Amino acid sequence: MLPVDDLGEPVPLDQPRRVVSLVPSITEAVAVSVPDALAGATDYCTHPSDLDVPRVGGSKYPDVDKVLSLKPDLVIANSEENRAEDVDRLRANGVNVWVTEAPKTVPMALASLRRLFGLGWDLEPEWLTKAEDLWRETAPAKLTALIPVWRRPWVVVGRDTFATDVLRRLGIENVYASDEERYPRPSLEQLNDRRPDLVILPDEPYVFTHEDGPESFPGLPYVLVNGRHLTWYGPSLVDAKAGLQRALDYGQG
User: Fold this and answer.
1) Coil, strand or helix at 17
2) pTM score, whole prediction
3) Residues 144/232/32/67 CA torsion (nearest 10 deg)
4) N or C, fewer C-beta in 10 Å, the chain?
5) Predicted confidence (pLDDT) per residue in 201-226, tens digit
6) Where does 175-253 show beta strands of DSSP type E?
């Protein structure tokens, strides 16, 4: 895992003017907050929906030559998603790379973004303060839930994950929150044996639908949710709380 740059002593970022983001959530945050600075993004950077910047391939395996051709003065990467060899090559070519940590909680994610925008542009985006206010409290636990994010094989959200904390703040306890793995891969039989109150099926990274997913959990109530609301951190958090709450209320109705 890559060392994280947005922890420890402050590192001046010198007002970046050409940023390539390899992290979809942060791409959206930069595009909304300092749009003129965003020079490139990955194919998976889908928001804002009208984002029109050069693409550099996937988040996990970006085309480093394309990144370098954009002449960035800052590349934003993630310690969990990006490869050390890509970061090393960018730095060897004189590019400043800011490596973020995969956030385990909502406050951790927002603090990281506050640090990035404060050090980089001396900026406190309005959406950031709104998100901090919206997500400050944690609701009393009401239900337990299972949260698959992939099938064939089944992969579920486990401990120390952003999605687990998002749901906890809405009063939903993840039945795999104490698992040893952050993203366990239990058998379908093991998943059903957990008997959660609710199965939460997001539309990313796997696109669960009413016809694809619920049939695997007979007798268990389910709800389809916006995966971006569940796993993205940034401007989407302003709408995520109300959006997820509506979906969860519908699933419990």
Assistant:
1) coil
2) 0.92
3) 180
4) C
5) 999 999 999 999 999 999 999 999 99
6) 198-202, 222-225
